[in-house]
Amino acid sequence: MIAAERRGIADLIDSLSPGQLRTPSLCESWTVQQVAGHLVAAVSDLDVSTLLLLLRSGFNVHRANDRLARRVAERHAVELADLLRHNADNPFRPPIVGYPGQLTDLQVHGQDMRRPLGLPHELRPEALRVSLDFLVGGRAVGFTPKQRPAGLRFEAHDIEWSWGSGPLVRGTGEAVMLALTGRTVILPELDGDGVPLLTRRLRA
Where are the membrane-spanning stretches (predicted)? Predict the structure, then answer.
């Protein structure tokens, strides 16, 4: 699943114009190309320059991640796509979040890139279920705080997935995944009596 997502995003990058690559993504202050840089950096070799970058960032992982994504994104888009394809089957398993975290990172960031460009992309149900289970399973460090889904029931009506108890948040599997990872743009696509509470948590 991870390899397929990397290849799909590489194809996406190859299809985009320079203007599309400069478009702001759904992910914080990154452009579409900078999101691609982040995905490439996740499978690039850890070298001395990367360690120095982490040191200059005061060992703040999030700050170092941002700087690394921007630096890698300075490469030509064709090179970014080629690196993703070359590393499609890279077996690296991140600590704590493991392969489910890596798959989730690819699926979420792929939509971060596609949605602002109006490019629909149907995620595979089996991959979505892995990511949804991961996001509510307590190991999603850096993806969603544990208190975000607490006390709510989530249902993905298109892939027959549900979790939790309490006020209901219901939508497509993609919409639920993006909401759990903090994308407020997705809120109008959700329904249920738990949406107001989730909205407050996302905007707090």
Answer: none
Question: Is-contact 108 174, C-beta < 8 A?
Answer: no
Could you tell me which residues are beta bridge partners of residue 171? 156
Tokens of 41: 């950096």
How many angstroms separate the CA atoms of 35 and 83, rounded? 14
pTM of the model: 0.91
Higher-scoring residue by pLDDT: 47, 113: 113
- Sequence ranges of the domains in the chain: 2-117, 125-203
Tokens of 191: 């329904």
The phi and psi torsions of 40 (rounded to 5 degrees) equal: -70, -45
- Phi/psi region, residue 85 (left: phi>0; alpha: psi -120 to 50; beta: rest), is alpha
Question: From edge to edge, which strands make up the β-sheet containing 153-156?
Answer: 161-163, 153-156, 168-171
Give the tens place of pLDDT for each residue, 78-120. 999 999 999 999 998 888 999 999 999 999 999 999 999 999 8
Type of residue numbered 92? F
Nearest residue to 186 via CA among 166, 34, 31, 177: 177
The rounded percent of the chain whose pLDDT value lies above 90 is: 78
